[in-house]
Amino acid sequence: MNFLSLNLRGALAIFTNELARFFRTVFGSILSPVLTTSLYFIVFGAAIGSQMDPSQFGGVSYGAFIVPGLLMLTLLSESTSNASFGIYMPRFTGAIYELLSAPVGVAETLIGFVGAAACKSLIIAAIILLTALLFVDYSIAHPVYAVGYIVLVAAAFSLFGFILGVWADGFEKLSIIPMLVLTPLTFLGGTFYSIRMLDEPWQTVAQFNPVFYLINGLRWTFTGQADVPIALAFGMTLGFVVLCIAVIAVIFKTGWRLRG
Amino acid sequence: MDNPILDIRDLSKTYKSGTVALAGVDLQIRKGEIFALLGPNGAGKTTLIGAVCGLLRPTGGTIEAFGLDVAKHWRQVRRRIGLVPQELAFDMFGRVDHSVEFSRGMFGCPPNAARIEEVLRSLSLWDKREAKIRELSGGMKRRVMIAKALSHDPELLFLDEPTAGVDVELRRDMWRQIGALRDAGTTIILTTHYIEEAQEMADRVGVINRGKLLLVDDKASIMAQLGRTEARITLETPLAALPETLAAYPVTLEDGGRTLRYRGGDGTGKGKREIAELVRALVLGNIAFSEIDTHDSTLEDIFVDLLEGRDGVPA
Ligand SMILES: Nc1ncnc2c1ncn2[C@@H]1O[C@H](COP(=O)(O)OP(=O)(O)OP(=O)(O)O)[C@@H](O)[C@H]1O
Ligand SMILES: [Mg+2]
């Protein structure tokens, strides 16, 4: 494939169409994650957090400690659901015929659908970081890395959501993976605690949870401290992105679930 | 055919369920023609279109459009093809004009407000351009589908039952528009259940059943080949065999000898003349009859005959 032959207009059309869909329902799509996260900040960050000993959290307040965890929770669920709905809806309504008959390939689809989904969750992430300022006092130790990491995670889970949306053959399947896999992994991955607080064997078990690395990677960019080496966290996230892109390329090559 | 715009060779498609939807279809489409694909439900029409447009993967065979293999050169080819599918399918909450602009962009064309306006006006949708699609009537929704397919000015247009569920007046209107597209140089392949539609519009007709093309020919030559006139003469007493005097005419005995069926003529009036002669022969031969029913055969007769596998039809 030659870059010059890419249908960039097509990619842009999908991208703007997806964003337009988002802004059409902007109230629901932004308000609900922001409200949920704010509740966490109020309950855990402000109310319970004030009772916590900062020495257990590398010297930062508990409120500041959970900011990256909650941000990750939102990023994972928003990216996954935005991207999965984005591709599942046209499959469901039949409007996918247009995508399939258009001069649009893997690259354009990724730019369009996955790019838009990632963009949406980045918008939400930014709003959440701003709202968090209302409830907790936090700072970002490595802002450039933080932005890079957030973008990377948003892209990774938008890719993952895209795969989910292609795989799902019913609405319930769309919500099953986020509900049964992502949310538990995020909670158990150290959103609200440091795994050093866990007893063995749970401390070891927790290290098999991939989301644990994501949360700690992000936490490092915020607080400068993490339970794992930062390079490992970045590497895991990058590896996940590459894996997802490979899966999507195979989906397009074989037409799996898209072309009968 | 020289330089067909679409060249389908030995195309087959077996769905995962095991259904053989296409069983070796060969079809060449001429540039600039309107080709009507006729066939009963489940014949494979939509599957054939889907295979050309990239909605599904053929099991075997090759498809070339504009001289390019559609599987290999899909980028170049798809830009030049438009598709109006059988089912209404779009984002119902989107606006009419946005939906059409989106289609144009997806096919790689730069924004062109004037062209979008032209398309919307030609389909009487301009007044509805700001409406949400779900607020439109069914016939209007179908026209939005057509507008979307026309937005990138395809050279080859597929219309899968464009007039299904559309009232008579609107159907005539659509025929006019399809005619106008052809006049502007677009090659059109449409599927339909309405024989009338094929007869009215098509240059050539193909009949498909159970995944096989049974017949492809110019509409005019099909009609001529099969004879334009048909008569059914109901006899008072059944005949065991055709009388010698009638052997020269294209007649058959049906219905246990109670009906004499004539099919003949070539569209020049020869059929009517022969029927008159036939009747004279019956009277002379003292063969009593109670009823004569004659009509000019239409594509519908041909279609029904083909599907029932009656003889008298060229293979
Ligand atoms: N996605 C699919 N999976 C399995 N079988 C299918 C699929 N789509 C169509 N078929 C089968 O393939 C055959 C041809 O279907 P197709 O839709 O091409 O017919 P058609 O000529 O368009 O019919 P209609 O006039 O009803 O639209 C039918 O037997 C149908 O049941
Ligand atoms: Mg069909």
Q: What is this structure's SSE topology?
A:
The complex is a heterodimer of chains A (260) and B (315).
Chain A: H1 8-24, H2 26-48, H3 62-93, H4 96-101, H5 106-135, H6 143-167, H7 171-191, H8 202-206, H9 210-223, H10 230-254
Helix pairs in contact in A: 1-5, 2-3, 2-5, 3-5, 3-6, 3-7, 3-9, 5-6, 6-9, 6-10, 7-9, 9-10
Chain B: E1 6-14, E2 20-29, E3 34-38, H1 45-53, E4 60-65, E5 68-69, H2 74-79, E6 81-84, H3 96-106, H4 113-122, H5 138-150, E7 156-160, H6 168-183, E8 187-192, H7 195-201, E9 204-209, E10 212-218, H8 219-226, E11 229-235, E12 251-254, E13 259-264, H9 270-284, E14 289-296, H10 299-308
Parallel strand pairs in B: 3-8, 3-9, 6-7, 7-8
Antiparallel strand pairs in B: 1-2, 1-4, 4-5, 9-10, 11-13, 11-14, 12-13
The complex binds adenosine-5'-triphosphate and magnesium ion.
The site of adenosine-5'-triphosphate has 13 residues of chain B, from α1.
Low-pLDDT sequence parts of chain A:
none
Instruction: State Rg of chain A.
Output: 19 Å
Number of helices of chain B: 10
Helix and strand string of chain B, N-terminal first? EEEHEEHEHHHEHEHEEHEEEHEH
The overall pLDDT average of chain B reads 89
